[in-house]
Hints:
22% strand, 265 residues, 2 domains, Rossmann fold, alpha/beta
Amino acid sequence: MERTIQKKLAVGGDSWVTVDVYGEPDAPGLVVVPGVMSDAHTWRRVAGAIAAWPSVIVVNRRGRASSGPLTDSYSLRTEVEDLGVVLDEFDNARALFGWSYGGLITLLTANDRPIPQVIAYEPVMQPFGRHALPDLKSAAETTDWDRCVEIVNRQISGFSAAHVEDLRADQHGWAVLRRLSGPLYAELDALNTAPPLDVMARQADQVDLIIGQCNRGAAPYGTSFDNVRQHVAHARIHELPGQGHLAHIQAPAGLGHLLNNLAAT
């Protein structure tokens, strides 16, 4: 599926979000919500592998080029309201798919309004990465984006120092990670300071939660996934073989195939 249009939508706080639309813009669609350290462009290969919906709308959340700033009033609620604007614009959407922080956003949005289907890949919830907030705040205040990338990979995701050096060796890829780390502290802080949650996706007809096989029961993503499961009583659980948290980068076709198979009929 090819991208057909990009659209700019005004949201609260004098900001805006852009959306990349693949396929037929006026046809029933799947709305994709990326998480932190990710943007709409990062999800282009997954969108291209999806065929079960006639359109795929990928949200470029605020804080990323070419969307607007987070603004001083930014919170997790801001994200839910922004997604509501997208859904009002694309009122033919039949399903939401969110990855990581984006998964949490989709599950909370389905508390506010009826959604036929919500799919979330390794959604996270508080407490997640809370121990890294002081270091992230210091790095953000000094605009040390190299340090931000190191913190998210080492202190939060738990990757090795060798893995970080491999990332750094790819100059283009490292530059992208530095750019995407700009809103990281504010997003992680918003996640951890949001009001406690009791139930998620209460108005969703169907909920599908996906975990990568490599993260089953393992911190931080597998344990946060298990925490989320306790708040979504009617969810169906699926596993993506051979994958961890970054399936959209490492196996976009495989993830797209799984999404096609999960499409509600």
